[in-house]
Amino acid sequence: MRHRAFLSSAFFAALAGYVAAAPTAASSDMPPFQAHVDMKTFMEHVLTPAAAVVWRVNGIVIDAKGEHDLSPRSDDDWENIVSGAATLAEATNALMIPERVRDPQWNFYVQKLAAAADKAYRGAEAHDLKAVSEVSDRLDGICADCHRHYGLE
Q1: Segment 141-152, tens digit of pLDDT
Q2: Closest CA to 89 of 117, 68, 113
């Protein structure tokens, strides 16, 4: 038991030293947040795939075998939607990294997307298809408004 207490004390002492030695935003030359990829890459590899997961809940595929409803049917399906919606919601923070902000209205559009993504996340967590479907229906308009404003169509 004493050995465990010693390890815990040593761990917390090391952790305290690490935290004390870590650079702060004021002492570091690096900004606290930075974009690692350009906006096009971010949209293609982060935002669009995450949004596509939410969009698919209202999807129907028609093929040679008939119509296939893409709405979630299993816990795995719901977990996929939770992951996509969580990624979309958290990615909105990355859109507000200062070097990505294009003008004073930028964060207005991002906040609309963030509110919708948060609603989709909460709905997916609750397995509430209606809530996620409402976001899916609105998401296209939110994205289109921003893309139109910034000439990204």
Answers
A1: 999 999 999 987
A2: 117
